[in-house]
Amino acid sequence: MNTVYSLCGMCATRCPIAIQVDNGRVSWIEGNAHDPSIGHSLCARGGAGLALLADEERPQQPMIRTGPRGSGQWRAVSWDEALDHVATGLKAVIAEHGGRGIALSDRGGPFTDLTRSFLQALGSPNYFDHDVSCGRNAHHATRSLFGRGRTELTYDLRNARHIVLYGRNLVEALQVAEVKDFMAALSGGARCTYIDPRASLTACKATRWWRIRPNADYALNLAILHEVLRRELYDKDFVARWVTGLDYVAEAVRDTTPEWQEPHTGILAAELYTFIDEIAEAAPRVIFHAGWMTARHRQSFYVSRTAHILNVLMGAIEVPGGVVLAKSPADLGRQGLRKLSARLPPVQEPRVDGAGTTLPHMDPGAGLLHRLFEALETGKPYPVGAYIAYRHDPLTALPDPPAVQRAMEKLSLLVAIDINWSETAWQADVVLPEATYLERANLLGMKDGARPAVVMRDQAVPPRFDTRPAWWIFGQLARRLGIDALSFDRIEDLWAYQLESTGITIDELRRTGIVFLADKAMLFDRESLRFPTPSGKIEFRSTVLESAGLPSLAPFQALAPLEEPDQFRLLFGRTAVHTHGQTMNNPLLHDLRGDNPLWIHPERAAALGISDGDPVEISGGDHVATTTVQVTPWIHPEAVFLLHGYGRTVPLQTRACGKGVADQRFLGGMLGAFDPAGGGNTMTEACVRVRRLRP
Amino acid sequence: MSIYILSHDSENCIGCQACEIHCRTNKNLGPGPAPCQILSVGPQERNGQPHLRFVFMPCFHCEDAWCRRACPTGAMRRREADGIVHVDAALCIGCKTCILACPWGAVQWDPVTRKAVKCDYCMDRLDAGLQPACVTKCVTGCLSFDEAAHLPDDRRRRHAEAVAARESEA
Prior knowledge:
The structure holds two protein chains of two kinds.
Chain A lengths: L1 E6 L8 E7 L2 E7 L12 H4 L1 H6 L8 E3 L8 E3 L2 H19 L4 E5 L6 H10 L4 E3 L6 H11 L6 E3 L6 E5 L3 H4 L2 H12 L3 E5 L5 H5 L2 E3 L6 H14 L5 H7 E2 L1 H7 L5 H8 L3 H14 L3 E3 L11 H14 L9 E3 L43 H10 L7 E5 L3 H4 L3 H8 L4 E6 L4 H5 L2 E4 L11 E3 L5 E3 L14 H11 L10 H9 L6 H7 L1 E3 L21 E2 L3 H5 L19 E7 L13 H6 L5 E3 L1 H6 L7 E6 L2 E9 L7 E5 L43 E6 L3
Parallel strand pairs in A: 6-7, 6-15, 9-10, 9-13, 10-11, 12-21, 15-16, 16-17, 22-26, 23-25
Antiparallel strand pairs in A: 1-2, 2-3, 4-5, 4-17, 8-14, 18-19, 19-20, 22-27, 24-25, 24-27
Chain B lengths: L3 E5 L9 H9 L10 E10 L2 E9 L8 H5 L5 E3 L6 E3 L9 H5 L6 E3 L4 E3 L5 H5 L5 H5 L5 E5 L6 H16 L1
Antiparallel strand pairs in B: 1-8, 2-3, 4-5, 6-7
């Protein structure tokens, strides 16, 4: 028996794991205790990696489509044939549209050097991640204030005294280290105020749940800001040293009193006064979490932005129990991993989505994926002919799957690289099956944070089927397109390239799976912080936003009320036992949560003659589906709620196919609807109608 | 009863069901049988706030166990040294008498082997000096296992820390 140190692949957290291998079989997986923030802990999804490995309902060899898209007619082919086929298709697109005619999306993370470099090698600027349906608003809000991206700031939850969460469902997002810190803080007496129209499991652990009206959280923050400034409850030294635009904010929130927000949010002004006393007492060990999945409504960007403004006012920047800046290898006097992209010439073409050019406030690094589909439909600003979806499923992630599918019809080549039969893979021209995380190695990654580390995903067992690792797949494709810079014969050769001048060896990583670049979490001296904004300060008044014609703080815009008795805002969320749409067919996880009843408030249900467990019809955006209801007082009466990821349609996923309903299908017409300042889709603005089905 | 105590701290539990999966994978079980289970009751209102009570249900390892008395073949056994009640799969004929006999529903049916399966505190792991699978990998550390005489009580420690925190704030 031997132990292989690696990274979990059941969700995008990538917790360090230790895998025991017995006669070529994985016998046990646990947390890698070399990372003290994890210990031996592993969540349900991580445990169910064994069931993923054993599952036969995943693509087992490369497939080329023979019937119409989505017909399920495939021809199993060799890797040589599949790669030749894709390379031929890519060459044809390059010949017709240039390299920029190729787009790729993945789900971000520490390994994107590979996919970004692949596009760079082809001369395409069109790398996208999934973030418009996730954290893009929080990312841009963070950048507008600090000049740093969302993941370049971390939260010291463990040492906080008051944690404020805007639907950030920490407990069910379940990142092991984060949950451990959160629960440790609560055990130690920290308060948590959780703000969400629905009581998630996090609400059940919080000291205060505010059942806010859907999409009204920005009004709440404007009122909190009003009170904090009126009562001068802010860290004046820190603000004087580091902030520009305090007067601007004071003017913007002059009239947004706790009483003003009451009808918008449904939260009593008196409760706000108590809350403000509490945070003033707990400062600076206060965290206003700027959110993760913030693709909610058209002002979600400003929710994240005001949350961070409150962190700054509390003086909760670069202090224990507050917001801590991530440290780069250079901050620690170290060299980071060498990038593959360093071997390639830069790309000069503008992005097809306008990020960084016509939309100067949008980060061109990962762009705005919904605008790719708009470009596919219109052919403007230029045509894109090929799209590679790598471990990303836009037909599950984005609003209005039929609109995504219509745009995909314009492509001459659609390739899915995945371990699963995703909804997108089922529509693809070619499926290139990646080996699961237990059967493959990845390029090395950096784990960012206050104590950064180099992490290794190593292969534990040989692939059960004819599947391959991504580094090999992209390297082989690149070679067929005449690019040698990305092809390595062995993963060790790639690792050696990355590690050059880091002072870290492959053997060292294999012994522990993780090599920290510092002995402990590090705090900068607060007198010598660096913020890469135009002014070098924290910009309450943002130069970047205002030069793009957007206000640094917009006035609150209430959505039109829903007045019909059967109308609801459709909210969605997640459970700790599934990862979005990716694990619904996992035998063990499907057994824990196989479908997703619709949550509805008892008063609204009674008015519609609906009882707990009744079958109902949900309609919205030209989509109609049936499910059962869960009548619960723990949701705002104006909203209904679904767990996301259900309603799979691929028949080869026999367990998940047809189980539950897919929330994104009710968002018809909303693929191109996004927060103009943050870029994220507006996925909680959708309205649905609910009616009881008579048996 | 067994000399062990497997204690569960509901306040520190998040109901993530990791324990259930780790138990199943350690026993090579597929969908269906759950030798341990976290049951969520609620949310119920506590001071106007939602509160979920989590109850962890493995097996009590009874002294004179109903399942063992009911078993017609002697497959349901009790290890004398420490009192663990466990299934000897070689003797189990899958008659389900034990499943019917247990007042708490602890004994489970494995549709693959067509035999009874239940919590045995991962006795193979205990014998190797390790902890049960559920405890080893618990996300928050709300599960703990030891000989009953040795178990440190997290509830006492947490209470003491909360008292100290209140005093230092005051």
